[in-house]
Automatic annotation (TrEMBL), chain A:
The lineage of its organism: Bacteria, Pseudomonadati, Pseudomonadota, Alphaproteobacteria, Hyphomicrobiales. It comes from Roseitalea porphyridii. This is 2-oxoisovalerate dehydrogenase subunit alpha. SUPFAM superfamilies: Thiamin diphosphate-binding fold (THDP-binding). The branched-chain alpha-keto dehydrogenase complex catalyzes the overall conversion of alpha-keto acids to acyl-CoA and CO(2). It contains multiple copies of three enzymatic components: branched-chain alpha-keto acid decarboxylase (E1), lipoamide acyltransferase (E2) and lipoamide dehydrogenase (E3). Residues 5-44 form the 2-oxoisovalerate dehydrogenase E1 alpha subunit N-terminal domain. Keywords: Oxidoreductase, Thiamine pyrophosphate. GO terms for biological process: branched-chain amino acid catabolic process. InterPro entries: Alpha-ketoacid_DH_E1_comp, DH_E1, Oxoisoval_DH_suAlpha_N_dom, THDP-binding.
TrEMBL record, chain B:
It is an enzyme of class 1 (oxidoreductase). Residues 4-179 form the Transketolase-like pyrimidine-binding domain. Its EC number is 1.2.4.4. One of its GO terms (biological process) is branched-chain amino acid catabolic process. CDD domains: TPP_PYR_E1-PDHc-beta_like (cd07036). InterPro entries: THDP-binding, Transketo_C/PFOR_II, Transketolase-like_Pyr-bd, Transketolase_C. Its cofactor is thiamine diphosphate. This is 3-methyl-2-oxobutanoate dehydrogenase (2-methylpropanoyl-transferring). The lineage of its organism: Bacteria, Pseudomonadati, Pseudomonadota, Alphaproteobacteria, Hyphomicrobiales. It comes from Roseitalea porphyridii. Keywords: Oxidoreductase. It holds the Pfam family Transketolase_C.
Length: 409, 337
């Protein structure tokens, strides 16, 4: 018998500020190398897919392998446009926050492909239960930029009347469930929505979204239990962007296995996908959506990507990670990769890209100008404080009416 | 009209609601094939099938979270938390989600769901089967909280809750499931089937949310209470000979302030009784409301009789329980003040 003292294992990322970016442990499978199972494949026959990464675009910008070909050329061009729009949108709103025009903003920089490509695999009427980093679902779904900005500015035309943090959008018509600030709660709600659709004999499916860090929340596990128990028609997405504010993704998974591998214990098929590869995300999303629609139950998708920007405008990533780590990220920049693919196909060029970029910037600027005319945090008009008393209940109870009168609204 | 236990009335309310509205679905732990550990959902799965009444994994946050998703879809889910003490894992889904969805989405999404929870003690349930968490729920804007004291109200309030467009918590005093109870644990329970309040109308009816009932009219003092304590108050009035007016609040949020004001302004005295622990309990809210609305009519300090500020102890349950002796002492003190 030995009396060696025990010690606790606290996971640490491979590199910290002052060091060099190190992704040496990160294996990048060749594009096109991963098989594409049938949509009714038994989960136990595709366990390997939770440890590999589905990739379609190769280093030359070509689409290769069994997951290629899920999008037309027009759809690819539209997808590039969506991502470029989101990038300009982010840039303008980040600056607007710095100018005091809003209180808060969170960018999507580096992970634009995930939501933009996923949206194209859904049908109108399907419902997403997103986090605050899936604005791409709205942009790719044609939701007006100006309305998104009205929400961010909490102005007189904010559809949520100033009740929610900036970027906490809601649009039933665009399949975008109201965002919560409490992490992971929406994941099980997505499963419930999908269960209701199945009970109704409907054809619509749901998609749940969660970040790598939030998978440690109990509701991630609640969602997995319910999805597997009832074989709900839901696509469960884990966006592994490497960082939960300052906490690296290894902390949430005990630095072991993958997030996708968590599906195995529940008998849920799980696929890991290159989240910076627009084509791969779309193909995998379409596979999972088809599986759900055909009654084969849930799929867990781990989107492997990298949050190139700060967590939010309240965060300083330089304090916990290497400033230029994204430049070393092995999966590259999603916008640059899709652009290169279109050039390789001969349907895009550097000149057209520069021109499109300028056009999109003008569009975003015009939307911002129109939104600011309806008010910002530092200049009116603003929603009436009367609104805070309304909509707490379908009908305002007496005590709230009295409080509203007391407040003078 | 039939004489029913509260359990049968609750079961009947589910049945009537499910027959009238295909969007009503019922789920929770053990509620399907077995019909619930208290039998409140007995027979529903057999009659409506396992798509409309089914068992859930043991995961309260999952049960409420899934119900929220179903409500957002357009269903009216009615879920059971097996004991109110088990609501804590679901608390975030209840207070941060269900209660907020209408407001935060400006009506874009709504959450018409019902969460039923057997509540209260007097059953030798110990610390984790006897709690009364109403104050943790009434503090939350966006929720409605009801608690019936008899079978007729149990059916009427549950039906109103199911038809309500907002989330409603129905706290069911499990000590009253089988019959009224006067707080004398050593006396036999009078079965609801021999009690006038066990008479429940057939078919569809509702008991409006937000409306209190005068359980017993009186002129000496006003008792503000709900659930099991309605009968303890009645026993104390009987034993002291004090003509107490007993207000059965029935809905705690939103509160029927008009009924409270009308009674206390007339009697000038107020005793508040609840089983939950005293500090920051719902009685504190009631006391403040009485002080705000009836200060100049008061002849005596507002008095509370509550559970002690301890966990509900298994072996000392009847020392914890606010029984007729403690209530009677409060009545006398208030009359002598």
């Amino acid at each position: 018998m030995t009396d060696l003292p025990l010690s606790l294992y606290v996971p640490e990322p491979a590199c910290r500020p002052g060091g060099e970016p190190d992704f040496s442990d990160f294996e990048v499978p060749k594009a096109g190398a991963i098989r594409r199972p049938a949509i009714d494949e038994a989960p136990e026959n595709m366990r390997d897919m939770a440890f590999s990464i589905v990739r379609v675009l190769n280093r030359k910008g070509e689409a290769v392998g069994p997951w290629a070909g899920s999008l037309t050329e027009d759809e690819l061009k539209a997808g590039l446009r969506d991502m470029m729009t989101l990038r300009h949108f982010d840039d303008r709103m980040l600056k607007a926050q710095r100018q005091g025009k809003t209180s808060f903003y969170a960018q999507h920089l580096g992970e634009e492909a995930v939501a933009c490509a996923f949206r194209r695999a859904l049908e109108d009427g399907d419902m997403n239960f997103p986090t605050y980093r899936q604005a791409g679902l709205l942009i790719a779904g044609g939701y007006p930029l100006e309305t998104m900005m009205n929400q961010i500015f909490s102005n007189a035309r904010d559809p949520l009347e100033g009740r929610q943090l900036p970027i906490f959008y809601s649009s039933k018509d665009h399949g975008f469930f109201t965002i919560s600030g409490n992490l992971g709660t929406q994941f099980i709600q997505a499963v419930g929505w999908a269960m209701a659709s199945a009970i109704s004999g409907d054809t619509r499916i749901a998609a749940g979204w969660i970040g790598d860090g939030s998978t440690s929340e109990s509701d991630f596990h609640a969602a997995m239990v319910f999805a597997s128990t009832y074989k709900a028609p839901v696509v469960l997405n884990v966006v592994n962007n490497q960082w939960a504010i300052s906490t690296f993704q290894g902390m949430a998974r005990g630095n072991a296995g993958t997030f996708a591998a968590r599906g195995h214990g529940f008998g849920i098929p799980a696929i890991r996908v290159d989240g910076n590869d627009f084509l791969a995300v779309h193909a995998v999303a379409r596979w999972a959506a088809a599986r759900a629609r055909a009654g084969h139950g849930p799929t867990l998708i781990e989107h492997v990507t990298y949050r190139a920007g700060a967590h939010s405008t309240s965060d300083d990533p330089g304090a916990y990670r290497i400033k230029h780590e994204f430049d070393a990220w092995p999966l590259g920049d999603p916008v640059a990769r899709l652009k290169e693919h279109l050039v390789t196909l001969g349907i895009w060029s550097d000149e057209r890209h520069i021109q499109a970029d300028a056009e999109i910037l003008d569009e975003v600027k015009a939307a911002q100008k129109a939104a600011e005319a309806s008010g910002t945090m530092i200049s009116g008009p603003a929603p009436s404080p009367r609104s805070m008393f309304e909509g707490v209940y379908a009908e305002m109870p007496d005590h709230l009416q009295r409080q509203r009168q007391e407040a003078g609204y | 009209m039939a004489r029913m236990t509260m359990i049968e009335a609750i079961q009947n309310a589910h049945d009537v609601a499910m027959e009238r509205d295909a969007s009503v679905v019922v789920f929770g732990e053990d509620v399907g094939y077995f019909g619930g550990v208290f039998r409140c959902t007995a027979g529903l799965q057999k009659k409506y099938g396992s798509h409309r009444c089914f068992d859930a994994p043991i995961n309260e946050s999952g049960i409420v979270g899934a119900a929220i998703g179903m409500a957002a879809y357009g269903f009216k889910p009615v879920v059971e938390i097996q004991f109110a003490d088990y609501m804590y894992p679901a608390y975030d889904q209840i207070v941060s989600e269900a209660a907020r969805i209408r407001h935060r989405s400006n009506g874009d999404f709504t959450c018409p769901l019902v969460i039923r929870m057997p509540t209260g003690g007097g059953i030798f349930g110990g610390q984790t089967h006897s709690q009364s968490p109403e104050a943790l729920l009434t503090h939350v804007s966006g929720l409605k909280v009801v608690i019936p004291s008899n079978p007729r109200d149990a059916k009427g309030l549950l039906t109103a809750a199911i038809e309500d467009p907002d989330p409603v918590i129905v706290l069911e005093p499990k000590r009253l499931y089988n019959g009224p109870f006067d707080g004398h644990y050593d006396r036999p329970i009078a079965a609801w089937k021999k009690h006038p309040l066990g008479e429940v109308d057939d078919g569809h009816f509702t008991t409006p949310l937000g409306k209190a009932a005068i359980y017993r009219p009186g002129s000496d003092l006003t008792v503000l209470t709900y659930g099991t304590m309605v009968y303890v108050a009645e026993a104390a009035a009987h034993e002291t000979g004090i003509d107490a007016e007993i207000i059965d609040l029935r809905t705690l949020l939103p509160l029927d302030m008009g009924a409270i004001e009308a009674s206390v302004a007339r009697t000038g005295r107020c005793v508040i009784i609840h089983e939950a622990t005293r500090t920051s309990g719902f009685g504190a809210e009631l006391s403040a409301v009485v002080q705000e609305l009836c200060f100049y009519a008061l002849e005596a300090p507002v008095t509370r009789v509550c559970g002690w500020d301890t966990p509900y102890p298994h072996a000392q349950e009847w020392a914890y329980f606010p029984g007729p002796d403690r209530v009677a002492a409060a009545f006398r003190a208030v009359m002598e003040a």
